[in-house]
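Hello,

Our lab assistant flagged a job as stuck in the queue for most of the afternoon. It eventually completed. Since we weren't sure the result was trustworthy after the delay, we are filing this so someone can double-check. Below is the sequence as submitted and the structure that was eventually returned. Let us know if re-running is recommended.
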Amino acid sequence: MGDFNSDRIRNICILAHVDHGKTTLADHLIAGSAGGLLHPKQAGRLRFMDYLDEEQRRAITMKSSSIALRFKEYSINLIDSPGHMDFCSEVSTAARLSDGALVLVDAVEGVHIQTHAVLRQAWIEKLTPCLVLNKIDRLITELNLSPREAHIRLQRIVHEVNGIMSGYKAEKYLSDVDSIIAGRSGDGWDENQEFVVDDEEDTFQPMKGNVAFVCALDGWGFSISDFAGFYASKMKASKTVLQKALWGPHYFNSKTNMIVGKKATDGWKNVRPMFVQFVLEPLWQVYHAALKPDGEVLSTDSEKKVLGSVIKSFNLSVPARELQNKDPKIVIQAILSRWLPLSDTILSMVVKCMPDPVTAQSFRIPRLLPKREIVVNEESSDVFEEANHVRQSVEACDASPQAPCVAFVSKMFAVPSKMLPQRGPNGEVVNNFVEEGESEECFLAFARIFSGVLTSGQKIYVLSALYDPLKEETVHKHVQEAELQSLYLMMGQGLKPVSSVKAGNVVAIRGLGQHILKSATLSTTKNCWPFSSMVFQVSPTLRVAIEPSYPADMSSLLKGLRLLNRADPFVEVSVSATGEHVLAAAGEVHLERCIKDLKDRFARVSLKISPPLVAYKETIEGEGSNLVESLKVLMGSADCVEKVTSNGRCVVKVQVVKLPPALTKILDESSDILGDIIEGKQGQSSGTLEALKESSSTVDDSLIKSLKKRMVDAIDDEIELGSKELDTDKVEKCRSLWHQFLERIWALGPRQVGPNILLVPDYRGGNNDESILIRGSSHVSERLGFVNTSGTQAREGKTNLLHNEAESLESSVVSGFQLATGAGPLCDEPMWGLAFHVETYLTPLVDSSDEPGLSTQQIDQYGLRTGQIMGAVKEACRTAVLRKKPRLVEAMYFCELNTPTEYLGPMYAVLSRRRARVLKEEMQEGSPLFTVHAYLPVAESFGFADELRRWTSGASSALLVLSHWEALDEDPFFVPKTEEELEEFGDGSSVLPNTARKLINTVRRRKGLPVEEKVVQHATKQRTLARKV
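-- returned structure --
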């Protein structure tokens, strides 16, 4: 792998929606440039990169795999990636190791939901994209479009994809990708910013050569530059001029041999753009000459002359037996694959338009290794300088042996040990011993070398994402030393051993199976920052409990789960509070593949799989938009829930309101940033001010300011929406009070980063002279920048001892809040979007001198006060939620369906049975398919695809993406009260359990909680007239 310089290397991945032709395109690239690895006649049918049995059976790609191609004097590392949303994690691993992306779009189906996702992934990873419009032949054979209609359709697709990229450039969609997927155009777009974007060049411009028009199944494709080269000599024109004129509103005057604009064509007959006249019409002629309307071969002399003229015009050598074949597809492939070879077209575009590793890493470095502005002391200055030197080597893609070697492992993948090469790079016999704990599976690291040279047998440091070279305590936790056993050049399923790899290449590494779980950074020096974490489009939401059919196989199951957790970059394995082993996957297809791998490869035992474990949230009634009403509750105008500890020394008063939905969503999406912020405050308890400053430096100030601004904007937007009919003074008062509440955030929950807020109690609301309020402090507000100083206020009370006792109990109040928000009152599910105002009053101990017969132990005979306060706060919060009309919140999928017109009825019947809410339906232009967008509850999604295929005879397809959380608008404790309700339901005995109650009971049964239900439906027993003894 050392034969190519860095400027002669290209690392690319293929990204697209499912079934848009990625693997078929990869087949033709392999057949044309892999040195005879695949015969051209098998390309598009063998699906070489889908070597797993499950991939061949389902006809979809399930993992990203790499292969090295040779094109002229270039080395091209091609990574094929899945298009199914369940395997989007593989797209992230492929994008991280690549410098460019081939984005495929079906010319008939157009831009779909996953197209948005892969374009966003390419934008985040700073890849250079090229657009490939695939399945051009379907415009002729299926839709029967004319060349002019096809031109309009292709223009629309290119314009739509450019619009998506322009939105990413303007940062319009990055804040809310769910709204993009759902097709909800941003209401708050900045018009001035949009004009700035319009002035910039489009990302994809056919005249620049970064757009290709292909038919991967038939093996032909072209770009504008190909036809510009064809016609330059015939028309005696400049290739550059023709390349610009062959796309857009340009027309050719055959009388003057001039290229003119639209205005100069007035009075012309049969006006056609040059792209239609010189590019599409010759293609249409070949197809029409080879195919009859019913698909039979034409044998008339006129059609043969058309094909002959094309062959003669472009000097093609086509064997006569292929031209005389009775299969019209073979005739078309024989002509077009020689006239417009697909492999040459795509790889030429890759070499011309995509950057080499040296160029790519120079502008990708802010994403890969963000620059850190840290104040260092004299002791750590040498470490910081060496870390910066490593970063500069990565930025320059330094491939010299003296440069520090840095690589990134995006995933671990398992291969059977028998598939490993038996000989080394020099032909020597290799001892493929199996690492301990791997049984018959060997784990290889899928890696990209960013700097230096990696050699077999080299010792290297494995750095986790949490490693910090400036902190000595992280060295022992997040750094491991490993020895690389073997290096392999990946050739799809095959592996070719190599002795060394230079910077800029993709390689498989053996010997890291016991050191890396998912991903890691490799470096020859400890003084190196780890690469930034990869971004995944979705999270694993589908969970099932797994146990062996025979308890004796539990050890094999545990071993298999460990191997599966390492082999799949997205699966999550955990143990629930009840002791169940829970497997979390991205969707049904992903889960089926994980279970199959577990049974057949890793555990090899019979398994019992539970029904899917669906996650819910709990909240209270209200849209959250009427913030004025919420203020009345927090200002003390509403009744509060009061609880007293068992020893009578502590009184807890709780009020709860619902947060605005926008603020709740921000808190939920920013959990990672909030986690760093909350961890920073832990340094305060360790004692030193330096520790607090050091911890705060781990979080970028710009991120904190951005999060603060988003929270304030969310409050302001909700106030404007819900207070249009109020006076300006009331609106301003409401806004100022909500901003004050943002300055009183004591804690977030559950797990310190959830979407629920604990507010610092208002000190003005005192209880009596004998008690003291446990004040708390606005730690989170301080860390978010809402409060400039710690804001410690003077504490008043009778004795300093009581104050100290109250301060020591602050953590108990927070712990009770965390327990309450982690398990709500309906079915022990986490709470969602609630703000709690907790006032805890502590009374002093009874003076033992007044009652000499009592001791302190007898006075406080019910146990520790910390536990009592935690329990009291927890129960008070749960009771407050129950009094405020609790509601269940369920996760929603955004569902995109494609259905023929005749199957719309059965499709809507399936959606209605599963409580789906249809958003819109539209007919695809020039196609008999309808595209339907809907929201589908996650709880109703299991088996949805199979039922849809069954009811529509396989004609409908659906793709699901996790969209948002939505509250069920049903009261689980509904009892008829009004006259209308009593008239409809009577006394309530005939009211059937509503959907919310059914879901709650299902979760409670699964968790072993008591369920209120009638065990006996009909208490009368059958009686007979005769009694026989």
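-- support follow-up --
The delay was a queue issue, not a problem with the job. The result is valid. The first strand starts at residue 9 and ends at 16. DSSP finds 35 helices and 34 strands in the chain.
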